Amino acid sequence: xxxxxxxxxxxxxxxxPYPAMILNDRSRIQAMNRLMQAITGYAIENVRGVHxxxxxxxxxxxxxxxxxxxxxxxxxxxxxxxxILNRFRRKxxxxxxxxxxxxxxxxxxxxxxVEDTTGRASEGDAVENxxxxxxxxxxxxxxxxxxxxxxxxxxxxxxxxxxxxxGTGKDKIAELIHAxxxxxxxxxxxxxxxALPTDLLESxxxxxxxxxxxGATRNKQGMFKLADRGTLxxxxxxxxxxxxxxxxxxxxxxxxxxxxxxxxxxxxxxRIIAATHRPLREQVKRNEFREDxxxxxxxxxxxxxxxxxxxxxxxxxxxxxxxKFNKALGKNIVGFTPLASQILSAYAFPGNVRELxxxxxxxxxxxxxxxxxxxxxxxxxxxxxxxxxxxVTTEPESVPDSKAQVKAAVALExxxxxxxxxxxxxxxxxxxxxxxxxxDALLTNGGNRTTTSEQLGWGRMKLWRKMKKxxxx
Length: 473
Prior knowledge:
The protein is an alpha/beta fold. The chain has helices at 9-15, 34-40, 44-47, 52-55, 66-74, 125-133, 141-154, 170-179, 198-206, 223-226, 242-254, 280-285, 291-297, 314-329, 338-346, 352-366, 380-385, 403-416, 430-444, 449-456, 460-469, and strands at residues 20-24, 29-32, 57-58, 78-85, 91-102, 107-116, 160-164, 188-192, 207-208, 220-221, 231-235, 256-257, 266-267, 271-276, 300-304, 335-336, 371-372. The protein has 21 helices and 17 strands.
């Protein structure tokens, strides 16, 4: 007679190569495997007994656990696609499997498996779409060089160092490298090395054991362990304290570490991608960053150009974010006025793509017409560009309007390389653009300053100061 056995469901869960969890017959979480804890960002100790949909939040039609209830009642397994939103508000495309667990008499609960489908976008147009979905827009030679390197870096487990100014998209490059690698089905964990003090950062990275320090009431797995077989993205690596740099170097060499307060070493298989906006070589010279760790991280290196270095991409980025926020806000703005486009093309964007994105979001919010004008742009743009103070404080007693002055202004145009009122080649300064704008308005109004100032939305005194500033008087 065959002997029935009761399987160890925790061991079975860990044997599933996807994030998985078990719910009871009221859809409350009973157990999660390590991969499920990693993809959701929640430890099982903190969410046991919580409704499954509250932890694995999705847009897969499971509001109020409708899918769970349907599977419990019918017994028919269900597979649906959608996105889940994890604890860190990262949206992950998934294939969501739900099946009923039962014994001979009754339903016991549900087995839920969440398959990350991020890595499936690999063929043909999928690659380009994947870049666009990550808001990596660019047709400039600098960005094409970056795009060409992503597939190469995805085919190896070597460490990657991503450098570039704040707002250039280092995080998105790291996510793409992971998504297109063989580790895509395993966790991608991001840790900001500059956001936590040394002790907390060490615990966050390597975990701790119960009693390691005051407040350590339970064992906690670190991000290295949660990222096992996946990728650990260390952003702001240049801000990592020196003591932790030593421990990180040890992990990179041995693939082992000891949790804070622990005695047993833990072995992991983790790929490291690091990023920084700081000049690491200069930090090495100043003994602020370990040279051996620098070379260990810098096996593969990609540098993201600032937006100033790829001005030809600004137009594409503006259109991309305009469409995005049009859709998000339910608007139908068709584009930018020529003046607004000129202003944005000449702007330096010290915050790079992130700042451009925020500017477009602001403009779409405040714009009430079909096109975004200069009046819809954030005022600080003009404050930053008009650095030169206007020294003139008084207007002369008599400032006659004269077509001769317009002709004189036009005669000066070749000297500064402006040939017509169309958009420039992207190299003009804001002063060049503003001067051209004044010239165009004067020509349109036959040199009449009253109507010119009204057209520009200025007072006559301001127009006079601008004309004097740009040598139009």
